Amino acid sequence: MVKVRNLGHLGTPVPYQYSAQDLGIPEQESYGHKLRRLRLELALTQIEVAESVGCSKETISAWERGRLQGNTTKAAEIPRRAIALLGARLKRKLKRDADLDSGGLDSSRSTNGVADQPLAALPKRRPRRGA
Question: What global pTM score does this model have?
Fold first, then answer.
């Protein structure tokens, strides 16, 4: 079993049975296969994908396992929308990674002088009563 470290929305590692590299890209990729591959490449949970698409976690799971098929246009609406969202997100991530690799810091984002200012000292904690 291959494990991928995923820091989901709670910041906790989530083990996966497969990684995106293990899945590969077949000649005729199903909606479920593509959905799982993109989700794993972005290190997202099924819950995070379901929230962004507007469906349940069980629906995403059923598509990924091949229990649901997109035989009609209406039936394929959810996975098409999810694949489009995840594909766009992956393109942005790859572009951002390429920008960071080529120039160190991402020059398209201005820091507005925030990084130049020293951090303020933390306030002192008040003692507890009765302790």
Answer: 0.57
